[in-house]
């Protein structure tokens, strides 16, 4: 793994949930390349998480299994992170689930599963990590650009509503934790080329979604990760309470 000339996150400890794949994995690699020590949380399969640790180096990364939607597991995750790294400087509640479901199709189980992971998880992760966040720390939540798309289709109701809650959490936490010197922002990706995105989609649908973007392509996990890294470092020191829509211009404005 190459080391950049400037390591702007040297000495920082980052905790990323859902970090074994997709945007979470790309973010772990990006932050590690900038000098941060990274906690890679995963929910079930340890193989990709262990591979990431090996790639980054065992001195600078650790994999911790935990259900990011369970308060009990969140408490343990925070405890193990602090035991390993001594502190938390960068908190990224990235773990999430997208169940495409219209109002009529949504079951109570779907609703519970979505809100447990997408809303309850980030809410209580910030709560449990707060005693270990010092002034200058950064909390970066994950939303979606779908919250700003006027042509959104009915099957995104459940997912987008959960991310709408995340955006409101971002705004209010920024006012609250900003008084403690902690920055809170959210990154809201557009369609991004992850395994989760490709799952169940035909090539025709993927091409159609790509055509909606001015650049006529999907975003890449590494592009989202670089935006997260910006907010996590000195570049984000005077950015607070903002929703950064990283989507190549698929949406403009709020």
Automatic annotation (TrEMBL):
Keywords: NADP, Oxidoreductase. One of its GO terms (molecular function) is oxidoreductase activity, acting on CH-OH group of donors. Belongs to the short-chain dehydrogenases/reductases (SDR) family. This is NAD(P)-binding protein.
